[in-house]
Write a structure and sequence with these properties.
It is elongated, with a radius of gyration of 23 Å. The chain has one domain. The mean pLDDT is 82. 6% of the residues are buried. It is an all-alpha fold. Helix 5 packs across helix 6. The N and C termini lie far apart (88 Å).
């Protein structure tokens, strides 16, 4: 009987639970969020590999991406927080899809580099 009562109390508390983070009025749609996060990741990786290339072109990765997608840093932060807190499984799925997209792009670029390397080798052989 005590277990049943405890279960009933826990279920009623869970059903009355208020959202931890309210949905922002200007929530960025999931597809757009994925694109923004993907672009930010690429530019951050570039920054780690060749900071001088970004500096010489006066590119701030975050500012560039926010401008490209017509969002501001606060809108991005609130949307990111909302997705991360309110639906962690969906948030994790977004990041898995971003990782898969990055992997596909890496394979495409590696293939292109291999073709160019082979072409260069053929030209040297001639």
């Amino acid at each position: 009987m005590k277990k049943c009562f405890l279960l009933l109390v826990l279920l009623s508390m869970a059903s009355c639970q208020k959202k931890v983070v309210e949905e922002p009025a200007n929530l960025i749609p999931k597809d757009k969020m994925k694109q923004i996060i993907y672009d930010l990741s690429l530019l951050q990786a570039m920054k780690g590999v060749d900071q001088a290339a970004l500096d010489s072109n006066s590119i701030n990765p975050a500012t560039y991406v926010y401008k490209k997608y017509k969002v501001d840093s606060l809108q991005f932060a609130k949307s990111d927080q909302y997705y991360a807190v309110e639906n962690i499984k969906e948030y994790q799925k977004m990041y898995e899809e971003i990782s898969e997209l990055a992997g596909q792009e890496k394979m495409r670029i590696d293939g292109q580099l291999n073709k160019e390397t082979e072409s260069a080798k053929k030209l040297k052989a001639e």
